[in-house]
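Hey,

Quick one before I head out. I ran the complex with flavin-adenine dinucleotide overnight. Inputs first:
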Amino acid sequence: MTDGAPLARYTSLKVGGPPDRWAAPASEEALRRTLREAADREEPVRALGGGRNLLVDDLGVAGTVVTTSRLRAVAIDGALVTAQAGSPLPGLVHRTAAAGLAGLEVLAGIPGTVGGAVRMNAGGHQGEIGDRVVLVRGFRRDGEPFALDREGCGFRYRGSDLEGSFVTEVTLRLEPSGADLGARVKELIAWKAAAQPLHAATAGCTFKNPPGGRSAGLLLDLAGLKGFARGGARFSPRHANFIENSGGATFADVFSLIEEGQRRVWSESGVRLELEVEVWRRAPEAARAVA
Ligand SMILES: Cc1cc2nc3c(=O)[nH]c(=O)nc-3n(C[C@H](O)[C@H](O)[C@H](O)COP(=O)(O)OP(=O)(O)OC[C@H]3O[C@@H](n4cnc5c(N)ncnc54)[C@H](O)[C@@H]3O)c2cc1C
């Protein structure tokens, strides 16, 4: 375990200071030890996957951040795919499509890791990763092991009951298929690239789509926020539900855009937007106020 480097280096939004401690376990046993030590010190501990859905405080975070980047083994056994939490999701999507296994091609274009995807129940119009889950293994915050079937994970729209747990390994059931899955993957990536700022520094969609049919992006657009900027951050001119770091954005720049978006959409449309992006702060109470 070491002192952490700024988390801006590990997040796609490129914002965030260092954690007090940083751990990069190379095995499940090492991860378990890290969790036990943090529990003994009564310190917070957080899992970091690809950092593709995170806004981190410029002051960094208290306690230990554990990266899953060294846990990335994948095994394919017929239609069952078992991947460690740190396996990059895009690689798994390509690999399973090439192996003629259908199910993950609907996740094409979603960055991050398998662990982060399961925790967030990542997905889109075509489906979510939770649809494919057979078993999720991992540790509770105090290092106690768990194994949950799909039901036990509590998957819902961009969420699950895995918050606060450490996923180490996920088993997915796919379907053998004769379709051209590689072409489907390419098509979905092209569709996303045409509509979203995939090459800008963002954390993906800032807000969840509210019930009622109108997307968060449309509501932000109607509130006049496309391209609206504060400091180094702006609502993407291409898709208003993405906040871009257009150069030197601070946590405060991004956070004030989040609050502005919620305020304006509430006053224009009477809709309360909920965050999809996870906010990591030294003072967690402030994050809860907007969650
Ligand atoms: C350009 C772009 C496009 C995107 N498009 C989509 C999309 O279409 N659909 C979609 O759903 N998302 C999308 N996202 C958001 C993001 O890709 C997903 O939320 C992704 O699943 C996050 O995975 P991650 O590994 O980066 O998680 P992180 O950002 O590292 O973490 C996210 C949360 O998961 C937790 N976590 C991470 N790893 C673990 C683990 N092993 N065990 C337990 N908890 C863990 C973290 O503690 C945190 O709470 C997009 C993001 C970007 C930047």
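The two ends are 31 Å apart (CA to CA).

Talk tomorrow,
K.
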